[in-house]
Amino acid sequence: MSLLIDERTQTLIDEFQKHFGAAPQYLSRGPGRVNLIGEHTDYNDGFVLPVALKRDVRFVLRPRADRQVRVYSLEFGEEGSFDLDALRFDPNRLWLNYIQGMAWSLEQEGVRLIGIDAVVSGNVPRGSGLSSSAALEIAAAHAFLIASGQSVALSGPRIAQLAQRAENQFVGVNCGIMDQFISELGRANHALLIDCRSLDYQLVPMPEAVSLVISNTRASRSLASSAYNERRAQCEEGVRLLRQALPDIRALRDVSLEQLEAYRNLLSETVYRRCRHVVSENKRVLHCVAALQQGDLAKAGRLMNASHESLRNDYEVSSPALDAMVEAMRSAKGCYGARLTGAGFGGCAVALVQAGCEQAVADAIFAHYPKATGIWPEVYTTQAADGASAEQL
Ligand code: GLA
Questions:
Q1: What is the 262 CA–ligand 1 centroid distance (Å)?
Q2: Which CATH number applies to 7-205+387-392: 3.30.70.20, 3.30.230.10, 2.170.150.40, 3.40.50.1820?
Q3: Are 125 and 50 spatial neighbours (Cβ–Cβ below 8 Å)?
């Protein structure tokens, strides 16, 4: 089957030719994601319901005979290179560390890689909560695997875990498994229910009558990483304290709302509220899956609204910009529900929208959000897309 080469891929091919003086042999891609519901649950062994986006990171590449890697980034307009036998964090080229980290993680797993020449480019907005880093890691994983003739060596969930390990241990960001998992395993027109403990997953068809409108607050997320780590620590503390009464629990996933209420006196007010978000959010994810399966979009929207309220009041990861964005989206005709998506503090919000009403939601955003915040947002309409791929050109 010949591959359909769109304009973006053609640009990559042309750049490769210019840069390396030959034609690339393979194309790999990893998409960004938007999470419908299930926020800050992945690192608590809980449930999430993301979809993969059409926006992605792509590599075109050619295997080399040695263990050198040379990658030209179109967005950064620069080449980075490294030796697979001397992988080390590069403080001058942060983007390259995701690629080095992926190589490191694959080799740690016992997958022997060969070097590549590659051109990389992405259209997932960076630093906006749509997982451009996971997209880069997953696209890099498939670039290395196909170049090394190892495309079938690893399962999808394992590739996602190795990408998470690259980000945790090589790049040094303490993320959960959701972003890499959906980038790897997403499917067009489906959301993916992921059990972040067992890594079992289930495709959930998106009703045809629905669209997703994503809106980028373009507000700074400077607090995001320190606050993310603090929330993780508070969840762990919650588990440690609740174990005095519930010795068998391993994570907040194992706690019911009734148990949390019964043993609330063991927790500080803040830790109690953090736990209440996670425990209630896990329930909302499962209810949202049922609502989508029944085509009850109004209910799915209400659950998304409730998720936002919980993230704002109990987990305290919203921001004035995100609240203004969500309010603007909800004011539009045809919006079933809206919430912040990703880690929070800035970045994007997502709305579940009746098909045909996308423009009304965009209009409402542009009418209200800039007035409330002084910031001009970006709006993307999307359908759920396929996860990662790698092909011969
Ligand atoms: C970031 C992390 C994910 C997840 C979300 C919050 O996107 O990378 O693993 O924890 O935040 O749901």
A1: 29
A2: 3.30.230.10
A3: no
